[in-house]
Amino acid sequence: MMGLEVALWRAVAVYRGLALVYAAVVIAANFDGYAHPAAGWGVLAVMVAWTGYAVHAFSDPRRRGWPLLAADLAVATGCVLATVWVETAANIAAGRPTLPVSWVAAAVLAWAVAGGRRLGLTAALVLAAANLLVHVLAGTGRGIGGTTFNGIVLLVLAGLVVGHVVRLAREAEARLARAVELESANRERERLARRIHDSVLQVLAMVQRRGGELGGEAAELGRLAGEQEAALRALIGTSAPAPPRAPDADADLRPLLTAHASASVTVSTPATEVRLPGHAAREVAAAVAAALDNVRRHCGEGARAWVLLEDGPGEVTVSVRDDGPGMAGNRLEEAAADGRLGVAQSIRGRVADLGGEVVIFSAAGEGTEIEMTVPRRPGARPRV
């Protein structure tokens, strides 16, 4: 909201300055025909002084209250009415503009920015009445010309349109701020879901499974663990947005992946360093760990897995392949619908946050391969 407010008041200030220059040109061109030329320059001096003060005063949010708005409208109205004293009745009847010409519209714009179309229309009507009063006081009330009428219409339109646009802009900015807040909260929920899945939920699921196998009191413990797992999954939905992280140093991805090597896991990496931003490297390693955990849980004790790291010119690709039974085509969608978010959050969610993509190849009896591609630069999209 502060950015919009500043931009709107700066726009009004710029208009004041440009309209003042135009008014000065008009007064300089017409002063020799005024009834009181010196008074015309005096009105211009008032306009110059008020423009300088108003630009400074409206730049301070603490001063944008009724006293300043009322003073702004009063000065504009006074400059319009001063036309009766400065100009001749003949010139007024001939359709010459008032002394401040379009400069008075700055007061209408200020009221519209401060309070929307209602206040903008109110200020426009006050100045319209002042324009009409000029002709009445000059004795030319029946000879109101097209110039005066057009000026009044423009003032009314400025108050209505600018006030309406300001209201729409404020509503749009509020909706955008809300959308950003929701997106931030959603990302934090996904991050917490990944962390919980990688630790607490896996332990609870293991306790539930082993308790059921052992029976007796262990079965009751397993049942309680299962209930807590379900309750914890339900709670993964609300959290405060995480504070932004400061960028950290680059890290070599190879040692983070080779740490998973074992008798059943083969890790192949390039001979040279594969560097990523530290946060990105840790997230990729965590996604690989989640994939290997799925192999251990779903493919049996004797299953083998192979991790392959490939270093491309603009992205890094990590593949995790196993020789398990494979998956049915809709297996991942069903798991996500049941609240099992291992692939959806721990793998796809992490890679998506890094601007990358995940491709999964699987067929019954032929194992599963998960291919994760992330860009080297944060926020960049991988090459296709």
Automatic annotation (TrEMBL):
Keywords linked to the UniProt accession: Kinase, Membrane, Transferase, Transmembrane, Transmembrane helix, Two-component regulatory system
Signal peptide: none
Gene3D superfamilies tied to this protein: Histidine kinase-like ATPase, C-terminal domain
Keyword match Kinase: yes
TM ranges: 7-28, 34-55, 67-86, 98-114, 121-138, 144-166
Histidine kinase/HSP90-like ATPase domain mapped to chain residues: 285-377
Domain DUF5931: 2-177
Source organism superkingdom: Bacteria
Name the record gives this protein: DUF5931 domain-containing protein
Protein species of origin: Actinomadura chokoriensis
Lineage: Bacteria, Bacillati, Actinomycetota, Actinomycetes, Streptosporangiales
